[in-house]
């Protein structure tokens, strides 16, 4: 008789980021915080409450600030809302010839909290925490250039140059291959994607469940809905 395999304990390091399939609202924030997880929304959190995470990321996502008496240090969480995550390029090059970085614009990446000038707080360039704005790769299309033509109306007459008039106009269509599907033209270039919330492991210690949250949101369905509209806050979702 085989001995059944015992479950292995899973150690999730502080600073690990995971996609979270549930909504983020007052109910789920309390439940996640009790398990040591925070929502990656760029919020300020206390270095006293989350010393391990502060020791790990410190100013990477914005310069820590102090407030209160005695002063307490607050630092910024990463903000992954509405963004795709990308591995730091470091020195990785493009296959197969190894010429150029996989991210050719790695050195010009913006800081984690950038302003209109492109400057801001936090890491920038080829470093964790930096970010890029959306872009479309440079390219060009072949086209036929109109040429001015001339005609000779008779044997004795000089050539007559036929003028070529052009008038600028906005396009009202999109380029599509003949017989292909209708292209989806939108405000950004993107692949098929699904929304998730990203959460970060902020402390290793698992706390006792938040008694107030448990009392208000006893049914998990109470946590359904957008922030501020879940049933335990007076609307949205489904309760039973």
UniProtKB/TrEMBL annotation:
Matches recorded under InterPro entries: Phage_tail_collar_dom, Phage_tail_collar_dom_sf
Stretches the record annotates as Disordered: 87-168
Gene3D superfamilies tied to this protein: Phage tail collar domain (3.90.1340.10)
Record's compositionally biased regions (Basic and acidic residues): 94-110
Domain Phage tail collar: 31-84
Pfam families xref list: Collar (PF07484)
Protein name: Tail fiber protein
Organism from which the protein derives: Pyxidicoccus parkwayensis
